[in-house]
Amino acid sequence: AQSVTQLDSQVPVFEEAPVELRCNYSSSVSVYLFWYVQYPNQGLQLLLKYLSGSTLVKGINGFEAEFNKSQTSFHLRKPSVHISDTAEYFCAVIIRMDSSYKLIFGSGTRLLVRP
Amino acid sequence: NAGVTQTPKFQVLKTGQSMTLQCAQDMNHEYMSWYRQDPGMGLRLIHYSVGAGITDQGEVPNGYNVSRSTTEDFPLRLLSAAPSQTSVYFCASSYSKGSGGTSYNSPLHFGNGTRLTVT
How far apart are CA A32 and CA A70, in angstroms? Predict the structure, then answer.
């Protein structure tokens, strides 16, 4: 069965430090990869996506992610975080099955940025 | 352009009561869906629709009904609420390829959620 694993449920980090949020997926078919961010009391919004082409994808708010097919990973990174980056981050995979697409979310990683 | 609008924001129900969570979008999206969010479990798909008159079950459909009479609206009905349905519910929409499921290159647009407590 296809799945998405976010190994860290919570990541505390100091302001201006770099951060990496990990995401691994299991699938033997073509995938499309996404990171969504959820700020407190809000819905999710798209941070970045990988569909094809360059494996390094840049998103909003200075985030980027790298698709690694051999390791089936799509880790999210930011070189210097701000207090305002405190939120929950969800990795998601769209798996193509015949002519339809199935979206699967990971369990989420809560990023806590401390001053 | 309001995007995806969910009402109510908060709701408390007693076991056995019924209610409808409302969802409306003004982006002319074909695809609409309902998710529930529970701690440590991410988002799980309840039901989805790829157009008016077409609905299908997701990962956790039991205890919920949906209908899609218009492109804009996709209400979620709880027929007989149970404590296990205490959760945060999100409605999401996107463009669709039309062949089932969401479009791979169209991001989901989420509402702000409905926090439901069943006592």
Answer: 15
Residues 6 or more apart whose Cβ sits within 8 Å of residue B5: B22, B23, B24, B25, B111
Q: Which of A45, A52, A103 to mutate to test the interface with B (most CBs of B within 10 A)?
A: A103
Residues 6 or more apart in contact with residue A10 via CB below 8 angstroms: A109, A110, A112
pLDDT tens-digit series, residues B43-77? 898 998 888 998 988 889 999 999 999 999 999 99
Cβ of residue B32 closer than 8 Å to a chain A Cβ: no
* DSSP letter string, A2-35: -EEE---SEEEEETT--EEE--EEE-SS-EEEEE
Number of CB pairs, chain A paired with chain B, less than 8 A apart = 63
Beta strand B4-7 pairing with B19-25: antiparallel
